[in-house]
Amino acid sequence: MNTAIRKVTTSGKADHLAILVIDNAKYESSLFSKQELEFINAEIKKKNKLITINQYGRIVFLQLIDTDKDKKYKTLEKIRRAGDSLCSAANKNGIKEITILSDNSKENTLAYAEGLLLGNYQFLKYKSSPDTNSLAKVNVLSKDTDAEAIKDLATVCEAVCKARDLVNEPVASLNATGLAKAFSTMGKDAGFKVTIFDKAKIKNLKMGGLLAVNLGSIDPPTFTIMEYKPKNAVNKKPIVLVGKGVVYDTGGLSLKPTPQSMDYMKSDMAGAAAVGATMYAVAKQKLPVHVIALVPATDNRPDGNAYTPGDVITMYSGMTIEVLNTDAEGRMILADALHYAKQYKPELVMEFSTLTGAAANAIGHYGIVCMGDCDEKVKNSLNESANNVYERLVEFPYWEEYDELLRSDIADMKNIGGAIGGAITAGRFLSKFTDYPYMHFDIAGPSFGKSNDSYRGKNGTGVGVRFLCDFLKKKASAK
Length: 479
What we know:
This protein is an alpha/beta fold. It folds into 2 domains: 4-144, Leucine Aminopeptidase, subunit E, domain 1; 157-477, Zn peptidases (Aminopeptidase), CATH 3.40.630. It has 13 helices and 20 strands. Helix 4 runs antiparallel to helix 8, helix 9 (330-340) runs parallel beside helix 12 and helix 11 crosses helix 13. The longest helix has 22 residues, at 147-168. The radius of gyration is 24 Å and the shape is elongated.
């Protein structure tokens, strides 16, 4: 993340300011002349929410927010989006440093800063003449917002940006080995353990799903294990995160069309990016929670001895799978990782993957499709965290009847279920490799934006990181 943020106790006369005003609360009117106050009142009558006052030596922005009386989390989302609007205005005016003035709650102030920080993200690595945002520093002047909270916000936003960077990186420069190395670098920076299995180790373990998908590639697969286990962890059993690491998906021999499909498939490792970046944030914040992340990684190509429709694959669990579509590859590699997770006897496993077009078609980019068998108390906590960061969950049925669609004539199971309930049968497929409380999150819709979406931006969004960080932070603070 290229935007620094800090708490300050004063502001200078030449400092550019952004004043956050909730529900027409009083603001420091002494900052403005009589004429400026008249202008502000006129803009308020026009229902303008971001009012710009050019005081020649500096620019002062007045940000007005109307709260949602019924849903606090909707108000926070309004505030984040307002922060993104401020970001655009600041960069348009060439502002390098800005101070947020807020007499609001810590939650509201942090949401405004969050929208500003995430909205300022850019991926410029391959631009020969980049149009770089001017904004580089954000100051927060708020008596109710402490320096530690601002530091934690900066860490989470940095983690989101790391996930975005990984998703935006082309496969030519980020294959499975490169993804594993990126996680290793994060581990060294943040202080968590990283173990990488190479192809020989994966073969020795007989991870048939991961090896099958990798058959068409000249690049080897990897299996990355990340672990953060502080001495003061509140959980006796670990929480395990699993992320799909398909660094590029052509569909294999079941080849995808290019327009609006394969051209975005560098993003098929967004689940892996989310869990790896979450590990970075958890370790950086030194949260007292034991977390493990597993990432099986490969690309899926139609070369050489690529696995074929009709093949029968013996998985790491010993189960046999009849392959009817090589583009249903994510579940093949995730199944091996989910079976591997059994050895940890986890309290909960949460798996994130860009798994199905069916999930994306069902709800678009507006939320995350989920399903699973953890208890209602955990589901309620997950929903609360998802709402807090506005990465909302839509729970699909998890009924056993869908298993009928996965029955195979020649193997234990097929890798696709047919035309109906595609997102659900994918989740049911994965459930066959679990024996612990499990939640599946299909992020195919919100993981990659094909148009700009406020502070989420365009292209890689880093979805899942803020949700997981919120959930794990609540877990860490539970008594």
